[in-house]
C-alpha cells in the first residue's frame, strides 16, 4: 500500500562536506531552508563544521557535525547515524560523497531512498587526477544503484550518461539550481563601495583552480590593454601563486586584484559592471545566476556545463567560444559599449530560477520516490 506523503512528515538526511562557501553548499542551504515543513524534516550532516561557516540554516534544522577532516573517517559515523535516525531519504550532495555513501549502503540495515546530486562533469573533473581510472570504475559500478540522480543541467546529464552508459534514463532528472533572491537582497542592502571608482569594473568569483580558467581571463586583460578596465578576482585556491606570477609577467598589477575569499560576494556583484566567467568546464555555475540576480550582465565561455541554459545572448549577457582569449577580450570591450538593463536581467533570472519554483520540483521528486 502506498504511503500518503501529504499527511506524514518524512526525514531527509542531507550529507555534505561542510557549510562553508561553495555552490553546492549554497544550493543545499536553499533547499533545506525552504522545504515544506508539513511534509519534510531536513537534517544536515556535515563532515566538518567550520567556525567560519557562512551558510545560514533555519533554526529548526538539525545539524550533525562529524568533526572529521577526511571523508574516509566519516564512514562508520554515517552508518551509525542512519541506523539511529532511519531517514526516509538520504540525499548526498557532491560526487565523491555520493560514491562513499553508496559504498557503505549495505551496512545501513534500513532502506532509505537514495538520491545523488551531481555537481560537475566527472569525465572532465577527474581528467587530471592520478586516480581518474578509479573514479571511472566507481561511477560505473555504483551510480546506477541510486534511486534518483539530480543533474543541474542538460549538459551534465549528457556527460554523465557518456561517463556511465549503464545509467538508466528513468533515474536521471535535470533540476536547475535555485536562487534565493530574498537572501541576496538582504546581503546587498546598504552596501558600501567596494570596487574602484571611475573604472569599468569586471568581476569573477571562484576557487583558484585550473577548472576556473582565471589564467585565460588574465591573458584576455592583457589583450584589452586599457587601464580603464579593472578586474577583481574573488576566491582562494592552489593556483594563487601562479596567477600572481602571471599578473606580474604581463604587467597587470595596476588593473587586476586578487582580493581573496569573501563571505559576501553579492555586494561586489551588485556593483560590478560586468561579470566574467572564463571556466574550462562547469557543472551549472551558481555565480552566473547570482551575478544576474544582482543585475550584473555576463560574458562567459560557452564551455561544457549548462552555460547556454543560463545566458540568452543580448538579454542577460553574451557567450564566447570556449578558450578563445581574443574573442573574450573583444566581447568584454563590446559589453562596455552595450549596457544592458540591470533590472530586466534580474527579473529574467527570477522568472526562471527563483527558489520557490525550483524547490517545488525537488518536493515533487521526493514525493514521487516515497510513493513508489
List the helices and strands and how they pair.
Blueprint: E1 10-16, H1 23-34, E2 40-46, E3 62-65, H2 75-85, E4 89-92, H3 95-104, E5 113-117, H4 122-125, H5 132-142, E6 148-151, H6 154-163, E7 172-174, H7 181-188, E8 200-205, H8 214-224, E9 229-234, H9 240-249, E10 256-260, H10 266-271, E11 274-277, H11 286-293, E12 298-301, E13 317-320, H12 325-337, H13 342-353, H14 355-370
Parallel strand pairs: 1-2, 1-4, 2-3, 4-5, 5-6, 6-7, 8-9, 8-11, 9-10, 11-12, 12-13
Helix pairs in contact: 8-12
Largest sheet: 7 strands, parallel
CATH architectural grouping of the largest domain: 3-Layer(aba) Sandwich
Estimated structural class: alpha/beta
Per CATH, the superfamily of the largest domain is Glycogen Phosphorylase B
Number of helices: 14
The domain tally reads 2
What does this structure look like?
By secondary structure, the protein is of the alpha/beta class. It folds into two domains: 191 residues, 3-Layer(aba) Sandwich (Rossmann fold), CATH 3.40.50.2000; 171 residues, Glycogen Phosphorylase B (Rossmann fold), CATH 3.40.50. It is built from 14 helices and 13 strands. A seven-stranded parallel β-sheet has the order 3-2-1-4-5-6-7, sandwiched between helices. Helix 8 links the parallel strand 8 and strand 9. 44% of the residues are buried.
